[in-house]
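S1.2 Input.
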Amino acid sequence: MTGASSGMGLAVVKLSAKEGAKVVATDIAIKQLEEAVSNLERDILALELDVSSEEQWKNVSERTVEAFGKIDNPY
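S1.3 Output.
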């Protein structure tokens, strides 16, 4: 989930986690994101992502597969 440190992005992360999903939450504001998801006791991987950076997309993809084994629903 991009833009996950606040607003609709964070709401989707919370709802998805509550429903049992393993979630990769991303945002350019990594400190704010880490703080926002720190109290959610679920499978959430918080990663920094500038959506305009191909290199950061590669990193997010690799880290997601390392953590969860696959990517199901990019959102």
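S1.4 Remarks. The chain has a mean pLDDT of 94.
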